[in-house]
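Students often ask why we bother encoding 3D structure as a string. The short answer is that it lets us treat folding as translation between two languages. Here is a chain of 269 residues written in the first language.
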Amino acid sequence: MVVLREFNIFFMRLILVFLTFSFFISAQKKKEKTNPCGMQLQEFSSCNESVKAYKDSLKKLENEINILNKTADSLTKFAKQKQNERQVKTQVWAAENLKVSTFNQEEKIAFAPNRKEWDSLFAKQIPAYCFFDKDTIGNNGYLYNYYAFSSPNLAPKGWRIPNQNDILQLNKNLGKDSVHSANYFKSNELNSWNNVGLDLFNLSIKPFGFRLSDSKEWYSGSKIFFAAQSTNRSKFSVIVLTDFNEDIFILEKDIAVENYGLYVRCIKQ
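And here it is in the second language, the structure alphabet:
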């Protein structure tokens, strides 16, 4: 509603400037027909004043256009920002899974096109990302290894990787309905979950699975794993939504043996 109101104001101002300019041009043409410049000496002064007024009006119009362009840019940026946000009670979550190939300091994250490269980067403790199985361009978001999602620089500026307290707060915000929290966030699209959700906050979470730490490679079909920050340095946390559980819950995994590829859904700072 805020964006719509701002755009209405913007277009009203633009129309007003256009009408004012059109009226001025029309008046000038009418005056030129009835009293052309240069025909009589006494008319020269009046014509000169008209030219000056015309130039002043053009300058004012240019200033108005510059102001309107800046306003339009700000509104576009604001609208785009709002499209990427979802208000969930007192929290603001990203509207989709993270898709970045660089840290927020512009340092590149290594891409692993195959299992061999994925395991090699993990063994060298190098941050990496990949795409899920046959999703060749990462439409559903990128999967990150531990050394990527544990970095404080992975999330875009103004955002961060959620932690266990964020999930506790999420459930607390839902009150007595927290036991069914997963249902409120699952996508309501058919052919997504076996038991489609309500998607009350338009987060559109689907069971895109995750990358396994072993030779089985991929898990898909009935759950999704999101990376979460952990206070225990020997472990990492996983936010889990499944077809089998009605609530969102946290798993703790050992870093040393878990080379998972996980999606990331950021929360606003």
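Translate back mentally: Helices lie at 2-34, 41-83, 115-123, 146-149, 164-174, 181-185. Keep this in mind for the problem set.
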